[in-house]
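Figure caption, in words: inputs first, then the predicted bound structure.
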Amino acid sequence: MSEEAQVVFLPSGRRGRFAPGISLLKAARTLGVDVDSVCGGRGICGRCQISVAEGDFPKLGLVSRADALTPSGDTEAAYAKRKSLLPGRRLSCSARLCGDVVVDVPPESQLHRQLVRKAAEAISIELDPVVRLCYVEVAEPDLHAPSSDLRRLRDALARDWGLTDLDCDGSLLPMLQKTLRQGGWKATVAIYDSRTMIAIWPGLQERALGLAADVGSTTIAAHLCDLLSGDVLASVGMMNPQIRFGEDLMSRVSYVMMNPGGERELTHAVRQAINGLAAEAAARAKAGAADILAVTFVGNPVMHHLLLGLDPTELGGAPFALATDMATRLPARELGLDLHPGAQAYVLPCIAGHVGADTAGVILAERPDLSDEIVALVDVGTNAEIVLGNRFRLLACSSPTGPAFEGAQISAGQRAAPGAIERVRIDPVTLEPRFKVIGSEFWSDAPEFDAAVTGICGSGIIEAVAELFLAGAIDADGRIDGTMAARSQRVRADGPVFAYVLRDGDPGIWITQNDVRAIQLAKAALQAGVRLLMDRLGVDKLARIRLAGAFGSHIDVKYAAVLGMLPDCAISQMSSAGNAAGTGARIALLSAKARGEIEDLVRRIEKIETAVEPNFQAHFVAAMAIPHASAPYPELAKVVTLPERKSANRDSGARRSRRRAQQ
Ligand code: FES
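Bound structure (FE2/S2 (inorganic) cluster present):
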């Protein structure tokens, strides 16, 4: 027993020699091995569990046996009785070393564990909790050594957790004395950002909750997470109630401009909505909103400003000055949120006047700064927010696509909601269509199809235009070919031009020449934005394109490519990033390290203002053609047969398109 014993911790492989009798938790701490603890080694929280890897480890040069640890004693028995301990598991704070041993620290016992993401190109999230729970036993007051309860609490935290110079959130003080006495001088303190005591409970508190919210102009979504395990406990969402002040962002900014104090109404509406979502999410996790200790937000610049109670008027016109482009940290109560009184809010930084904290969230979820290859992240809304680059350089811009991709400015357009046509196929010979409607699993030519059709949404109109182009009914300039009327009664005169009738009846769904122009203008703006950033970066090819947001999840990338929404890229490398902004909010909720990284990245990103870039217009004109006036699309040609280009002079054709679109 007197000789030193060797211990190796897996998976880190850290090893050391210690005098027998040392607890494994202490050995782990000495070696810098990541083992969690809330109770500070008192055998009551169960977070420090490990298991012995038994057997011969020739590479490590030792034989490991379970009896190299002291047998399970009363503390572990008491814990196992209360909470149950899996077979083979030991509490590392109770088990002591008495021989050579290899110890496995399971992921759930690691404070900085990796959360594996499900997406195909997953990066894992490394937990770096912003809130830590620290159990302490505080000395009772002593008449002979007078000191305040707060001072003795801080002394206990310094002694047991090595936490010194802690601040105390103002909300903690009123409950401090009662809580300490209620818990018999045993308490758990929540420490935020390793700096501030924000909450205190009598005895042992084992759960800390946080909320990650994505404040979109149409919908607000929130995920309730366990801050210590990273688990998502509930996900909730609702329409943004600000819609009653204006359907889109600019009409809400106009509302503020026209109505003095209007920003307060909009701020109140969004904060109330978040309070409702927090309560709903907490109830689903059998908790209360008062259990939420941390909250993070992403949102476009206007949403960001309104959430923070900032007047968004400056964002309504050039030069689109943000009030702040830094991350905002403040007590959640200052945002009018009814969470735990000490709860802390973190709002991700905006990047530029049109490139918001939602894009910062997308960057955090996708991490283009870790890629060797050139990646484009595209979030399509009323504006397309574009980030392009790799680990050496990142650029961002916003391109004014307008709302056509969301179904607005389209004759039969509507939001992506039940009843909207979302998929379209057109027979290249007969031009007969079939389509799918949101809310129905059947195609329109199936006998079971009986969905009510109300309009066509962004993905539907994109597919319709792309299919008509592939069928030769729309030429590269975007003109609906009237000669097709002889071949199909679907092509009909519509004033001096022609339209394609996707659906007869009530409502009739026509793809008009103006609809095609609106889509051309939107896609040309998007592609021009991407090409502008490619120019700046000096590249002519993208290795990967990730489409973020609801639109990105809905769209069939093949049709986006046919239409030339984006520069040519292997179809297999174009994919949806899902709700990447929301994922970014969740990462920032779970990782202090990630917060530092995104703040640093946002500072480094080069912001390009498309409005003042002379090349934007030239790119725009060239991108009006389908898929493009001059750029080759070899990757696209591998998966679809593109109609032969008929026009001799693509640029003049594109210019005609542009003129017609502007008329
Ligand atoms: Fe809490 Fe071991 S550290 S039970």
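The pocket of FE2/S2 (inorganic) cluster is lined by residues 25, 37, 39, 41-48, 91, 93 (CB under 6 Å).
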